[in-house]
Amino acid sequence: MLTMPRTLVACLTALLPGIAAAGEKEVQWAREAGVRIGQHLAWPRGTALPQKLGATVALVIDRDGAVSDVSLIGRTGSAAADQAALSAVRAASPLPPPPISPGETKFRATMPVMFALGEDMTHWTHAAASRIRTRLTWPKGVSPARKLLATVAFEVNRTGAVSNVRLLRKTGAQAADRAALTAVTATGLLPAPPLPADETSFTATLPVQFSPDFVPGRSICNSC
Length: 224
Description:
By secondary structure, this protein is an alpha+beta fold. It has helices spanning 24-38, 79-92, 119-133, 174-187; strands spanning 2-3, 48-49, 53-62, 67-74, 106-115, 148-157, 162-169, 201-210. It contains four helices and eight strands. Strand 6 (148-157) and strand 7 (162-169) form a beta hairpin. Helix 1 (24-38) packs across helix 2 (79-92). The longest helix is centred in the first third of the chain and has 15 residues, at 24-38.
């Protein structure tokens, strides 16, 4: 699980007007509006990766495509992601002119906004976790019947160099804490992350799990 201090990648994966029996023009408009909003959608700062988050927004659009009102009717569970969804819609205004019926001045739609990792970052996440797995060993003096979980944070720069490794959550066993820190520190160099041009580094947080069925290479970051 990786957490970015600034946004890196996100995508709008679904965008459909919330009207009954949406016709071809409405669907086409939704696709075009989705592309426009997707250009402004950014992964919410401080939100853990990888995971998917979905919000639902209600919009009121003027005839010329200007968004006159946007609100949340379905939340992601993350305040940062909710705000990112609203901000993306506002920043994308004006949207393509909507298919408004003659005599109407406003177009109303409800849209699900989904955040998901870009393919490049997903691949990097798997590669980084695999590299760290090779350094993880069962802590000496700790009973193999215990299940332990630590959370380690560290910085990764553009070349993949790891620095500032520290514990955010302790296991309750000092030997296991040291083993988790050592696994990350000993890695030294991870694959170069797919950072945007204006980013030089980011902060990662990694859950490191020791369980009774521990096998090096399988018991770290199982969700990555």
